[in-house]
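idk why but the lab printer keeps eating my pages so im just putting this in chat instead. protein + zinc ion:
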Amino acid sequence: MKNMIHSIRYEEYDSLQELTQQDRILMQEAIAATQGAYAPYSKFCVGAAVRLQSGQLVRGANQENSAYPSGLCAERTALFSAHALYPNDPVEAIAIVASVNGQLTPNFTYPCGACRQVMAESEMRAQAPISVFVGSATRILRFEAVASLLPFIFDNLPEKD
Ligand SMILES: [Zn+2]
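predcted complex ->
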């Protein structure tokens, strides 16, 4: 028997100004995306923005439904939209924030397990790490890859020819 340790590396930023310009724009896009949330039940408006390798940005926001399981998170809304609109343009980065009553939340809004699974498959499709930015009202975290957030992933992608 061997004891194994898995660790992850991530960065913390104290303001949007510390980010590169393209990452700052991605975060601002995620903040703007919260406007598209349909959250009459939770009042918790999540915004996500995806940047593709071409530089194209795609927004997503949580879409709730009175039949609760029929709703969808912001991250999957953005990723599925990106893959549907630009199937040959791999995802490079995703940013996630949330607001309540028009104010960014003081806590980080991390992606749920199902979204992490979808993000992980986007990363496999991209064959390159996807940066994950998670913002609060005052700080931003950057994870260098989805694999950091979901290690030992279920991977049943068919082999490529
Ligand atoms: Zn989710």
